[in-house]
């Protein structure tokens, strides 16, 4: 059986749009703009009839491993949808060509944004919001689907950000779905990215939700410290867990946080809480690690602490504005009820639900 027939049988056509080869040529302008490349093949920038941009992932005919990942991704993305997952728009299976067409996420990936070469340093609250967005996407995979899905390759380069700085999980080529929601683990060939892969999964081949939690914890540590899981020097390697442990024991939060954030004001409790959450994710025994729903709740509390501090600073100094969705006026004083992504000067975009009694009390989350 040819590859295209095999894949056709496994993609539910009614769920996504099918593109012809000529349409793919047209939307990519004859594959004019290459925006990425991997073991599966190449990714090109395209534009649909309504001028919305898309990313077209083209499978290389010579890639056996790429075909398996391509097929897995096609199967999963036709049946899942979430604000914090990159959306599949359609596919092409024609003339021995296999392509997946995704929404184009135009603000790069987290690895690029955390790079030392990037002059636009992510603010602390932006890092927390990215972690929250990623946790929401992962929570959906683990608990919001008919059967749990394990991503299996969480890393900064697989967290994409759009122009509104909303983070979306991407690259489901290694993802695996449980056959039954009561299953506790899958036995499979270890796969993932060194530094982010769960050591227990790497040794045993037993995959479960806590394998993703470990990877998420390593990403969270990178968001906090600015350091990758492994740093290779001229003569040796430095592992982030070995580096951070003595600093935690000495209580030196300033030595832990990314030095590029030194000029920012931090809520110490919020920062320590984020460190504690990250360290709980990478505990040696998977059963000791928290589930992603608990992690999400803790990270939202971290952001609330940060917002509490900054909102009080704004109120006390009578500076800045909050763009809100609705304004309700009571009998004695205005009450602003906000549920949106907002921008605060010198602070950045945040997602929150906030009731604010202007100049009388502090925000309540």
From TrEMBL:
PROSITE patterns: PROTEIN_KINASE_ATP, PROTEIN_KINASE_DOM, PROTEIN_KINASE_ST. Keywords: ATP-binding, Kinase, Nucleotide-binding, Serine/threonine-protein kinase, Transferase. The keyword Transmembrane does not apply. Residues 29-303 form the Protein kinase domain. InterPro entries: Kinase-like_dom_sf, Prot_kinase_dom, Protein_kinase_ATP_BS, Ser-Thr/Tyr_kinase_cat_dom, Ser/Thr_kinase_AS. Pfam families: PK_Tyr_Ser-Thr. The keyword DNA-binding does not apply. ATP binds at residue 57. GO terms for molecular function: ATP binding; protein serine/threonine kinase activity. PANTHER family: OS07G0107800 PROTEIN-RELATED, PROTEIN KINASE DOMAIN-CONTAINING PROTEIN. Belongs to the protein kinase superfamily. This is Protein kinase domain-containing protein.
